[in-house]
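stuck on this fold:
=====
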Amino acid sequence: MASKPKNIDDYLARLSDEQRLALEKIRRAVRAAAPTAEECISYDIPGFRLRGKLLVSFGAAKNHCAFYPGAHPIRVHKNDLKGYGIGKGTIRFPAERPLPAHLVRKLVKSRITQQAT
């Protein structure tokens, strides 16, 4: 049984090149949208905390990658998410077609606004 990842770099090192590249793109976009957020591992996947609260997470599964911004940002930007698998708080996408950085930034900013209220 593999040990749990200690940080985001450790998590990403365990993935295929394609998954790692897709998730590194997500990581950079989140950092750009929330530069003061702190990286973390929560529920064994990478995430970012802002002011002590989990902001967003992301991860890889066998057949897809996922971004977890929460339900509110997905509702607000539902029209921008056509073509992606979406759940209540999850956006699934193939590693070879990662979420565009501008969309990730929009989702993160919506989440920040939501948490501030």
